[in-house]
Amino acid sequence: MNVKKRDYSLLGPDAKRAVETGLAAAQWYHTDITRKQMKALMKRDDQPAIRDTFILFGSMMFFCAIGVLLWPTWWSVPFWLAYGVLYGSAMDSRWHECGHGTPFRTAKYNDWVYQVASFCMIRNPVTWRWSHARHHTDTIIVGRDPEIVAMRPPALFRIFLNFFGILDTFHGLKTMLLNAVGKLDREEITYIPESEHHKVIRVARIWFCIYAAVVVLAIITQSILPLMIIGLPRIYGAWHHVLTGLLQHAGLADDVIDHRMNSRTVYMNPISRFIYWNMNYHVEHHMFPMVPYHRLPELHALIKHDLPPANRSMWEAYKEVLPVLRRQLAYHDEFILRELPKTAQPYRDDFHETVLGAGGVNQPTQLPAE
Asked: What gap in Å lies between CA 131 and CA 300, rounded to an integer?
């Protein structure tokens, strides 16, 4: 089946269609959990996040200090690579989780880490708080979700470039400069309240001054060392967050209101889980975004009877994803429809009839009505 044309912009016909068909701000499916269980899972605790934050920033300072001491010899390279992953990838998950306000019980701790992580990722903290709220309201709804990475057909070269942070960094700096002169992008205006525009502009101007100072220092010292500490790690350390983040939704259904159809849970090694802050439990996170990251394994154990089986590793997940992306690249309108266990509530074939019959891979032969 040939791929249908999709307009992923927030200003095009698909955005209008999503509103008209009831996909925008729809009522999503959630696995049944008792109120007592959910209250316990949502309980916040400073201790795990403080521990992880000290480990993160302590490690960054250690690797950076060794990198500076060994500069400019090749012996410094492993330390810069480690520093880069923590700066350009671990900060992505810290930006994400602290944007939800769930890791720390103390609100100001969430905000402090969120501000630092946003700066490292070159994502305006005001803009992206609203952008990510839209992502959760309209997850992978074409024309509504501003954070769709793997489109149909997939822009694989763009994804490849972002393994090195190139396009995301360029876009972040470009948007920062636009905001710094007092303007907002047309799509930003669709989801950022006007009362917040001045905050977007203020942050961009502060960041511009910081980056300008770093560049000036690099010119004065005739060395890229200042940029190795601030700025460049966003490029050379981005690969891990792209490697893990691509698995969140790639190859799955769009325009559905069941996170089991458009999100993926993948078991990962402890180091990747630390960098990723347990976002590998992604179906669980989208169903219940107010559950702190350190409680997601517990949530997974509680509701996995109602979810598609988790991929056992990143390798297994990519073996599932890549063949579908290749077919989508050849303009075949296919996606992966994960089979549910017999203990699960079925997908809503009444609402998703056109999607379920459109081109799913590993599609169940019959979907019983709810």
From this structure: 26
